[in-house]
Amino acid sequence: MPSLTAGESTALETTERIASCFSLVGTIFIFVTFVSSPNFRRPINRLVFYASWGNTLCNIGTLMSESPIRAGANSHLCQFQGFLIQMFVPADALWNLAMAINVYLTLFKKYNAQQLKALEWKYHLMAYGGPFVIAFVFIFVETKERGKIYGPAVLWCWLAADWEFLRIAVCYGPAWVCIITSFAIYIMAGREIFQKRHQLRAFANPSDEHNYAFKTVDYQVTRDCESHPLENITNAHIRPSNRKGSSLSDISHGSYPKYNVKISAAPRPSSPHLASTEHKQQKRNRPGMEANRAAFGYTKVASLFFVSLLVTWVPSSINRVYSLIYPDSISVPYAYAAGIVLSLMGFWNSVIYIATSRAACRTLFLNLFGKFGGNGACRSSVDGDGPLMATADESRPLEGTAG
User: Fold this and answer.
1) How far apart are CA 76 and CA 133, in angstroms?
2) Which of 12, 21, 153, 361 has the fewest CB atoms below 10 angstroms from its CB?
3) Tell me, what's the pLDDT at 23?
4) pLDDT at res. 82
5) Burial, 164: exposed, middle or buried (Cβ in 10 Å; 0-12, 13-18, 19+)?
6) How does strand 142-143 pair with strand 147-148?
7) Mean pLDDT throughout 307-331?
C-alpha cells in the first residue's frame, strides 16, 4: 500500500486533529445550548442535535488520526477507530436524507410537528441502526487472503486497501444515493414554494397591502329644505305643479324649495353569519399555510445542511476515485482535502445550528452579558418560520417567544 512521507504524515495528522477540535467545540455548543435552553429546541435543531452525537463519536476517531495505524492493523485501537469511522461517517449523510424526507412530508403531505416527531425513531434506526450492524459485523470478518476488514487506509484505520470495494458499497455509494435523493427533494420543494410564494408572503405579512379587508357600509341621506324667494330669478322655466288651482303667478310670488343633501357613512354591523364563515375559512386554510411556511423555513435549513454535505463528500469522493484509478499512488492534496472535510463534519453542523438559531443565540449572549455585567437577564423573542422552526414544545409556545 502506498504511504506518505514522514513530513506529510505529520502535517496531515496535525491538520486532522485541529479540524477535529473545531468540530468537538461546535458539537459541545450544540449539546449545551439544546439541553439548557428551550429556545434552541426547534424540531429542525433536534435533528441536528441527533446528528451531532454521531459527529462527536466520529471526531473521536479522527482525533486519533494515524496513531492507530502505528499501533498495527490487529490492534484494538485500530479496530475501534475503523468501527467509529465506518459507523458515523455514513450516518451524517443519512441524517441529511432524514431532513429532506421531513421537507417532503411537510410540504407535500402537510405533516405537522407532532407527526414528524413520531417518525424520529425510524430516522434513528436508519441513520444509526443500519450502519451499526454493518460496522459491528466488520469487526469479526477476516480472511486468509485479505486479512481483517479494518486496517490502515492512509488517513486513519478504516476499510483496508484489500477491501477497497467495500468503501464504495457501504460508504460512498449509500452516501451519494442520499445526496442525490435529497437534491431531488429540494428541487421539488423549491418549485412548489416558488409557485406558492404569494400565499407564503401573505401568511408571513398579515399587514401586506394585498391582504384586503372588506367592509359594507350603509349610506344615510337626509334632506334639509330651505325656502328662498324667487324675486331675483329671471328667465326661470318652472313646470306647473300638479296641484289644482296653482298658477304661475302663485309660484313666482311664492318660494322655491332648495335642497341641501348631506351624505354620511357608518360601518354596517357585522353579520354573525358572515364573521363565522370567514373565521371557518381562515381556520380551514391555516394548517396548510402553516405547513407551507414551515416547509419554507425547513427547506432553507435543510439546504444549508445539504451544502455542508457536498463540502464534506465531494473532496473525499474525488480522493476515492483517484485511488481507484491510481491504486499505487497517493494524491497528497486530495488526501489533505479529504482528511480536513471529514474531520470538520461536526463543525459544519454547528455553523448551521447557529445560523438557524440567531435569535436564540442573541438572547443567550444578552443573558450572559447581563448576568456577568449585573444588569439582569434580558429576554428576546425568538423568530421562527412556522411550527417546525419556532416551537420547542409542540403543545405550547417557546419560553421567551412573543404571543
Assistant:
1) 19
2) 21
3) 94
4) 94
5) middle
6) antiparallel
7) 87
Q: What confidence tens digit (pLDDT) does each residue in 218-248 have?
A: 445 455 545 555 454 454 444 554 544 545 4
CA gap 394, 392 in Å, rounded: 6
The answer to whether 170 touches 134, Cβ cutoff 8 Å, is: yes
**Cell digits for 261?**
343633501
How far apart CA 309 and CA 342 sit, in angstroms, is 10
Residue with cell 396548510: 288
Q: Are 42 and 391 in contact (CB under 8 A)?
A: yes
How many residues are present in the chain? 403
Q: For 160-186, what is each residue's pLDDT tens digit?
A: 988 988 999 999 999 999 999 988 988
Question: Which H helix or E strand runs over 310?
Answer: helix 272-325
Confidence category of residue 124, pLDDT binned at 50, 70, 90: very high
CA distance 328 to 333: 16
Residue type at position 28? I
Element (H, E) at 240: none
Taking the CA atoms of residue 242, residue 245, residue 249 and residue 250 in that order, the dihedral angle to the nearest 10 degrees is -80
**Pseudo-torsion of CA 325, 59, 336, 8, nearest 10°?**
-110
Distance CA 29, CA 11 (A): 28
Question: Three cell numbers at 122?
Answer: 425510524
Contact 26, 49 (CB under 8 A): no
Alpha-carbon torsion 132, 58, 80, 338, what sign?
Answer: positive
Residue at grid coordinates 486532522: 16
Does 97 score more than 60 pLDDT? yes
Q: Are 65 and 156 in contact (CB under 8 A)?
A: yes
